[in-house]
Amino acid sequence: MIQAAIFDMDGLLVDSEPFWQDAELAVFQSLGVKITRQDTIDTTGIRIDQIVKHYYKTQGWEGPSCEEVCDMILDKVIELVSIHKPMKPGVMHALTLCKEANLRIALASSSPLKLINATLDALDIGAWFEQCHSAEHLKYGKPHPEVYLNAAEGLGIDPQNCVALEDSFTGLLAAKAAQMRTIVVPEHEVATQERWVISDVKLTSLDELSIKMLEA
């Protein structure tokens, strides 16, 4: 029986993926790192410190440390989210449905807690979430299931009694590895890819979510 809904954040609640792409392109290119927008798309859902360490290992740069580069990218994303407040369609509908279904609501994100708090404040939806969990300081980020398992444990609910809502394939893998029911809302550009078949439900928007999908 489903007792909790655990939401991803970037790309699902907030249309921040283009901001991440812009920030990564600007910062990495300023350091002389050869990177394309497709490269930033291909790493969607992966923790930013892992991305930065990958490019430092494969291409390297002089000057700022990996930690400083992460902060440069993060600060740019926070700035853009705070200005534009780009809530994704159907967010309030989905949160309201979860409440109507008497589900506990939590958040499990790869993003640093600093960005999580800034985003929830910008969108004015923080009060909906009983708990917020970040993979920032975990040994492994998504697709490792730890952040989802931590969210379930924090709620005191068996992972098999949770439904995870995701937009990225990396996040979907994490939720599946945690043995949660999965609802995915992939970006339009990749929505037709066959790999989404491993999800329990695939939507084009959170506006399509129903209580039946949550509880099945």
From TrEMBL:
Gene3D superfamilies in alphabetical order: HAD superfamily/HAD-like, Putative phosphatase, domain 2
Classification via InterPro entries: Beta-PGM-like, HAD-like_sf, HAD-SF_hydro_IA, HAD_sf, PGP-like_dom2
Keyword check for Zinc-finger: no
Domain of life: Bacteria
Entry keyword set: Carbohydrate metabolism, Hydrolase, Magnesium, Metal-binding
Cofactor(s) needed for function: Mg(2+)
Keyword S-adenosyl-L-methionine attached: no
GO molecular function, one term: hydrolase activity
Protein family (similarity comment): Belongs to the HAD-like hydrolase superfamily. CbbY/CbbZ/Gph/YieH family.
Protein name per its UniProtKB record: Hexitol phosphatase HxpB
Organism ancestry: Bacteria, Pseudomonadati, Pseudomonadota, Gammaproteobacteria, Vibrionales
Gene behind the chain: hxpB
